[in-house]
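Notebook entry, structure prediction.
Reason for the run: the old model in the group folder had no record of what sequence produced it. Starting over properly, with the input documented here first.
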Amino acid sequence: VQLQASGGGLVQAGDSLRLSCAASGRTFSSYRMGWVRQARGKEREFVAAIWNLASTYYSDSVKGRFTISRDNAKNTVYLQMNSLKPEDSAIYYCAADPPPYAGLWSMIYDYWGQGTLVTVSS
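New structure, fully documented this time:
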């Protein structure tokens, strides 16, 4: 499985961005897909995950502001990010975990994309 993340950029606090992650592979719909971020000088942090068609889980830091979704026909997972804050600045990675899942909100994934940079200015 290959993952290609896109959609990052430089925005101001309060703005929105939508990240996309295109996946190869025929069994995408069965994968748990997630977004993980890493800010400069910090450890990777779980952001959001989606499994089945629409079961989702979010970190407390993004709950209510970010929405993860997927389009299985396009083999793509999205992360809609609203009300962005400077502390959301990070490289965002998409990741895929085939069943049986490592854990619904685990950061253990079999496949990782290359990351897309999000910078939020104050």
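Summary: The mean pLDDT is 94.
The old model has been moved to the deprecated folder.
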